[in-house]
Prior knowledge:
single chain; 63 residues; alpha+beta; 1 helix; 4 strands
Amino acid sequence: MEESQVIQLSAISGWIIGVSHIKDQGYQCWVINADLHVLSNGTLYRTSSAALTAGRSFVERYT
């Protein structure tokens, strides 16, 4: 399992959006919903801002 580091957290009503960095691979986004389910699309992004944008888009789509 690859070691990752949490880079950024952001909250939107009922959701937490997180971005983590996997060394030498990139950034990934994940979200935690109000039921405490953790969801990720499994995509690696080149920048943390791209990962955060993907997480925000996911939340906007499902709220």
